[in-house]
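Extended Data, panel c. Modelled sequence:
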Amino acid sequence: MAALARALSCQTGVTQWVAGCSGLLQTAAVPGHCQQMLCSIFQRHKAGPFQLSKFCGGLIQANGAITQQNRSFYNRNKHLSAKDSLQPSEEKVGAFTRIIEAMGFTGPLKYSRWKIKVAALRMYTCCVEKTDYEEFFNKCQMPDTLNSWFLVAQLHVWMCLVRLKQEGRTGKYMCRYIVHCMWEDVEQRGKVMGINSAVLKEDLKRMVENFYAALFGYDEGILCDDHVLAAALWRNLFNRNCDDPRHLELLVEYVRKQVQHLDALSGEDLLLTGEVNWRPLVESNARSILKPVSPVYNDEGL
């Protein structure tokens, strides 16, 4: 095609036109209809240079348009593929589901709601019953109070929320119910301890504020380095009252290995059973990766 363009600019004879078109026919990049045009040119080359220039000029323009179209198509596909690769895979939600969720209601989920609520209650139970609070109080020198218990339970609840938010809309629904179970439990424990209702109400209000502030701090810490995570633990778990850096080091190591352990669990098992086993606070080899044991449940997810 470049040879034809040079021939057009130089206005050479018919013999050079035929030679240039012959080379063009041998090129694999020429489409079928362009080859037909060239064949017709050969048959009419006796018509003169003017007619030959007219036909070949149209051929060059047609082939240039095709090349430009192919190039733009390739660039557009490349751009779309790169754009799609950067975006995370999101759960497809219908228009009706988006409308009812915008109104404050919950749309259809992957599993039935009562199964998710049962699993959420079981997961919260694992946070408060499978955690050795006495070991936390002794190793970290924390007072044995309701607030200290809540701070340790809050840390484990947050780690469960981080894992469940990876499971789409169903996981987020389960997160909300875990938090609901936590506040119900805290209120019941305060009543059992004989705390005055007015004082308990104020304490719950303060705990709610501290809880959501802790979520932001822990989220930032888990996404950043150990210095940021240690600062979040110092502010929220120790209430800015920790003079021994070894305690912070122990808790940073504990959070990292627990999050790694939860990431290895099956999302389907977590949504159906809510069963979580925590790694101990002190381990001989904290960097080891434990293979999680798959929970056993029946067809109803119980």
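The first helix runs from residue 2 to 10. This feature is highlighted in the accompanying rendering.
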